[in-house]
Specification:
Number of helices: 23
Oligomer: single chain
Number of strands: 5
CATH superfamily of the domain at 236-394: Hypothetical protein af1432
Strand order of the largest sheet: 2-1-3-4-5
Order of helices and strands: EHEHEHEHEHHHHHHHHHHHHHHHHHHH
CATH architecture of the domain at 236-394: Orthogonal Bundle
Structural class: mainly alpha
Strand content: 5-15%
CATH class of the domain at 236-394: Mainly Alpha
Distance between the termini: 29 Å
Length: 454
């Protein structure tokens, strides 16, 4: 039984939710509370799986409620369903809320969101780890990138372009800005899949507020970087992201899918950062076991934790509402044949780049071999040698990964091995003009919520 608690101080809103969700599938139990205090009492009486709360309520508001739920019941999935809200309350909810929905919201959207977020739990078989990951408000960033972002933002010459360049080089910051910009508060039709575009839409003022006032970003300490070999991992992630772009160019992959792959390349090992952050001592033991037994990190993780960094990363990205092609590429980048994917898209690009990219020396390897059977199923097995040659030309001599991608190598693009399906990747996004987003706070939200009660 999956139990969901809805919290709103407006009786009419609760009545509407009861009506709309009456046809919810068997196996779902819906509860309704009129205040944050009542909600906490309900959670204390019996376990729940999801809480969906309004933001503006008398007494304890939605942001404070989610903070308390995160502390007391970290395993619970936390969703905001709200209308008019001010900038302060929304920024306060950035940490404890996994996802955001805006009123008015139809029944099918709510049902789909509940099924999707609860379904993510199937990715993890370790319930203790599931609770630890769900409790995370942010993922810590690589120290030198974090310091660079602070310096850029505080500079009188700060620009959206420069900030975007910095953020897209860090998995933690990329994940967070994509969580924010893809939330319902921004009202974007379709999904944003790159950090640079997300930063452009958020705007300079909001990014500065998120960094310096709301403290949305944090950083790893140097000891953790060394203990878990995260500097090497970060350099590899940059290289994978860049190499996906090169492969996409020679394979004629549509731009949308290529952009998703570049983002997934930065994020593909984010689960390692998560495990190092929330399970430090245990994960250090896993690393040592992998080194001692001369096994891959994935094998050691599976044995010790019942899951791998790939599933852990995908689980949090899913909770945060990142686009499915990115989450899928992160989840299955070590075992693409298990994903049931039939198109040459982000997953294929990330797996190829990850498997072929030469790693800097580190005590333990996280990656396995190239899954040629997977590429054979896509009709691309003959291209693997082309990608190896491409890697040597693009990245073979690089010991230091530069943030900017090099120009594509002069290898003839693949144009004659059948069409590339783009059904899952091209969604005809309609985006606001650059810099016009700014959270759509008081003005846009109030216009939108004039259609329904808060």
């Amino acid at each position: 039984m999956t139990r969901v608690l809805f919290v709103d101080d407006e009786p009419n809103v609760l009545s509407g939710l009861r009506r709309m969700l009456r046809s919810m599938d068997p196996g779902w139990e819906l509860r309704f509370c009129g205040s944050a205090e009542d909600a906490l009492n309900a959670l204390a009486r019996e376990p729940h799986d999801v809480i969906v709360t309004d933001m503006r309520m008398p007494g304890m508001d939605g942001a404070s409620l989610l903070d308390e739920v995160s502390r007391l019941y970290p395993h619970i999935i936390r969703i905001v369903l709200s209308g008019q809200a001010n900038q302060e309350s929304i920024l306060r909810a950035v940490g404890p809320a996994h996802q955001y929905l805006s009123k008015p919201c139809d029944a099918e959207t709510i049902k789909a969101k509940l099924r999707q977020t609860v379904g993510l739990r199937r990715a993890l078989s370790n319930t203790s780890l599931e609770a630890l990951v769900a409790q995370l408000h942010d993922i810590p960033s690589v120290p030198n990138v974090y310091v660079e972002l602070v310096e850029v933002i505080r500079s009188d010459r700060a620009s959206i372009h420069k900030i975007g360049e910095v953020i897209e080089r860090d998995a933690a910051m990329t994940a967070k800005v994509l969580q924010l910009v893809n939330s319902a508060y921004f009202g974007i039709h379709g999904q944003i899949t790159t950090a640079a575009e997300a930063v452009q839409l958020l705007g300079l003022d909001l990014v500065r507020t998120l960094m310096l006032s709301a403290h949305v970003f944090s950083r790893l300490n140097e000891a953790a970087m060394k203990r878990f070999h995260l500097t090497t991992m970060w350099q590899h992630s940059l290289k994978v992201s860049r190499f996906t772009k090169a492969i996409a160019a020679v394979e004629g992959v549509p731009q949308t899918a290529a952009s998703e792959a570049m983002t997934a390349g930065i994020l593909h090992d984010v689960g390692r950062i998560i495990l190092a952050s929330c399970l430090a001592d245990r994960y250090a033991e896993v690393l040592q076991c992998a080194i001692a037994d001369k096994r891959t990190l994935v094998e050691a993780e599976q044995e010790a934790l019942g899951c791998t960094h790939a599933e852990v990363g995908a689980y949090l990205l899913g909770l945060w509402g990142l686009p499915d092609p990115i989450r899928l590429a992160v989840a299955f980048h070590h075992r693409p044949s298990d994903a049931g994917v039939l198109e040459f898209g982000p997953l294929a690009l990330v797996h190829a780049a990850d498997a072929l990219a030469r790693k800097a020396p580190e005590p333990v390897s996280s990656a396995g071999a190239l899954d040629t059977a997977f590429f054979e199923s896509l009709g691309r097995a003959s291209r693997c040698d082309v990608w190896r040659e491409l890697y040597e030309r693009e990245c073979g001599d690089d010991e230091r990964v530069e943030p900017a991608a090099k120009a594509p190598v002069p290898i003839r693009p693949r144009v004659s091995q059948g069409p590339v399906s783009t059904a899952d990747y091209n969604s005809g996004l309609k985006r606001p003009a650059p810099g016009h987003l700014r959270l759509r706070l008081a003005r846009t939200l109030s216009l939108r919520t004039g259609q329904g009660s808060d």
